[in-house]
Design goal:
The chain has 3 helices and no strands.
Length: 66
């Protein structure tokens, strides 16, 4: 199960990386990650979602289990 979870997160990360590269092409209509976050910071529900997502990642990946 752990291998499946790691694989899914790796695929999501790779997909985001591909979207970022596509968004940086000249004339692309795909927004970059920075543009998406900038837009989210002007919308309160989206801002709360961003903060909760960072909290979840920090809690699960950065807190030592000791």
């Amino acid at each position: 199960m752990h291998a499946l979870t790691v694989t899914v997160f790796a695929l999501l990360g790779a997909g985001l990386g591909v979207l970022e590269l596509l968004g940086r092409r000249r004339g692309s209509r795909i927004p970059t990650t920075g543009r998406l976050l900038r837009a989210a910071l002007h919308n309160r529900p989206a801002l709360v979602l961003v903060v909760l997502t960072w909290w979840w990642f920090g809690w699960h990946f950065l807190v030592s289990g000791g």
